[in-house]
C-alpha cells in the first residue's frame, strides 16, 4: 500500500507483472470493485450469481502480504509497501 494523503494505491503481483490499483478499479473474475485499500488488505465488492440465479453483491477481501507464500487467491500475490 502507498498513500500520499488523498490517494491510496495497492500493488498486485500476477505472474511476475505488478499492477497498481486504486479504490474504484475493477479486478478479478467477478467484477470486483475495489472499495478500500489498507495496509493489510484490499476490500472488494463482487457481483456473483447466487443459487437461485439472481445476481447479488458480496464483500470479498484480498489479503496483502510481503511474503508471496502467504497468498492463496486466484488474483495473484499482493504486497504492501509503506511509504514512510
TrEMBL record:
<dbReference type="InterPro" id="IPR007446">
    <property type="entry name" value="PilP"/>
</dbReference>
<dbReference type="Pfam" id="PF04351">
    <property type="entry name" value="PilP"/>
</dbReference>
<protein>
    <submittedName>
        <fullName>PilP protein</fullName>
    </submittedName>
</protein>
Amino acid at each position: 500500500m502507498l498513500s500520499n494523503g488523498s490517494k491510496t494505491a495497492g500493488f498486485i503481483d500476477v505472474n511476475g507483472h505488478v499492477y497498481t490499483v486504486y479504490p474504484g478499479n475493477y479486478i478479478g473474475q467477478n467484477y470486483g470493485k475495489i472499495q478500500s485499500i489498507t495496509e493489510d488488505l484490499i476490500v472488494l465488492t463482487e457481483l456473483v450469481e447466487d443459487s437461485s440465479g439472481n445476481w447479488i453483491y458480496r464483500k470479498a477481501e484480498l489479503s496483502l502480504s510481503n511474503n508471496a507464500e502467504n497468498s492463496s487467491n486466484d488474483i495473484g500475490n499482493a504486497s504492501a509497501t509503506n511509504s514512510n
